[in-house]
Amino acid sequence: MSGGHMSAHSPGKARTRVGRPLLSLALASMMEEVHAHSGAVYLLTPDESVLEMAVMAGLPRAFAAPWERVGLSAPIPVAEAVRDRRLVWVGGEEEMARNYPRIAVVLPYPFALAALPVATPSTAYGAVFVTWPGSHPPELSDRERDHLTAACDRLALRLERAMEDSRPLQYEPDLLAAPTVGGPAGTLGTVEAARMVARLPYGLCSLDLNGRITFANAAAIELIGVRAGELLGTQLWASVPWLNDPVYEDRYRAALLSQHTTSFVALRPPGDWLSFRLYPSTTGLSVRVTRARAVAEMNSAGRQPGDAPSRLVTISQVLTLSGALTEAVGVQDVVQLVADEIAPAVGSQALVLLASRAGRLHVLGHRGYPDAQVVERFDGVPLAEPTPGTHALNTGVPAFFESRRHLERLYPPRQATPDGYAAWAYLPLIASGRPVGTCVLAYAEPHPFPADERAVLTSLCALIAQAMERALLYDAKHQLAHGLQAALLPASLAPLPGIEAASRYLPATQGMEIGGDFYDLVPTAGGAAAVIGDVQGHNVTAAGLMGQIRTAVRAYTTVGQPPEEVMRSTNRLLIDLGAELFASCLYLKLDPARGRAVMARAGHPPPLLRRPDGKVRVLDLAGGPLLGIDTSATYPTTEVQLGPGAVLALYTDGLIESPGVDIEVALADLGERLTRYGELPLDELADRLVRDSATTPERSDDVALLLLRARRDA
To answer: Could you tell me the pTM of the whole model?
Structure first.
């Protein structure tokens, strides 16, 4: 995008008045030519990165408040029009929900929109959008396209001349319809019209485009129960406490945007039901207020089981569901959330979530089907097979089937796979332009899908798709992490003469659930070598370094190095690798025939020894610094007697360290459990020692445990 355009575009700043209001007149003329009922002009900021709304017409600016300032990269029509230098057309609410779900969530109403760039061949100045009621044809006519394109080109030339002449734009207020004085020629005068309205038996109110009451007859004032002085000049839902509900304001917004008549029923306390019918135009709304006796009688009879909700999903509900979906972590979290929150909100009784993988649809989860085989038969269906789920995913277009007959007419093979339901919505899950899967909502009874409901469901499927994409990525990383961890740790401990062994590993529950804790048991001539260690960190880097250390220890052990030399060699290797992580380590050579163990320690927690008589002590071993710090470090050894029945407990600090617990207390507790349960089989003893850590929902560190017992029968 080339530079050199106006230095001041901000609509919020006062500008020097030069001539007529350029933007307002251009926008008004454009809307009149194509019979649009609202629109806005955006101007680029000097740095060409943000579009700012300069003037709006036909609707209150509050309707477009989230988009008063938008970045050029934003996924909305005006930004796309400037980026691509083309007209962007959105033919209705379904298309809006599919292509611009962020807008559809806030404005789920039937209306059409066109966005165009305001640009010369060399310079972009901004953009324009105009809207039509929901009754507009789904396609833009050639006449409308030509008029809009020509008008935007003319506006761009005028902005270019203004820049060349150094004429800053004047401040221009938004264009809202001014109150009509007198009335059209040939109609009743103002006084007589007021008398006629006063004689009507039902209430009448007039609202301006901002929703403020400009007129109310006596019947309306009586029905609403608020004095005229408290109504006039206020918004109905603001001045009447029992109308202070987003649902009622939503009907006003829907009427203005769609230019379709809307209505709602509200309860005036304690028991009077009133019907409000809103008739919109480009100048405001007329509201008819009557008693709704039929509704009152229906409600007094009570809601029957199985009745559908009175309204599908409010904007606030959609936003709440959107927030809940951001908290879903794994795929099953998404499945559960859709089942618990979304399906009930839209009146669905069952659901299936399908993922696209390797050219097939796979069932990720389902709810509401008593017989799981009914769903599982669709697992692995090729994307090329003509089914409603694959068709929705391949085309990116939701499919709605109001009855079984409707479904079977289009997909005859479904006659052979009854699932007990009578209506379905197949929603494609598209995230970042990539097909993720399909969400299937099933209904127990035939279910019509009106346009507003389809728009909401389409918006929801976009939110589900984004959550599903994140969940699939998380699960893939989780599986990768666990697979890597499993590959780096020994699959099992080799049986050794004279020695029993058992081990446990618990990953941290924070981060990737992968870490640098490790252990190993290596057979040697006449005995064995055991090692346990902890590499700093809880990520793939730590796990990879852990694997290198474990491999090095095995190699140094195999060539017959004594414990102190194994530690020195591993320390030098870690430094030579240039790793920025440190590691603690405890290494020992076991000689069961002589009943002894020779140990070397590098900054690792001291092991516990349970003697054959049941007494437990913490071994005070000589040692050196952590591995990876000092190339000249030495690691002196300590010899410990290991008689038949004695148990050595080697562990990492995750077993004894926890927030708010003194480490000495934790170590004493570990020793007490080792004393109490030391005679149990080693696997059962290992479970007892890690019990508290295993049941802790939030582990900030990995836990590794290696138990060694000298056989009594050796």
So the answer is: 0.50
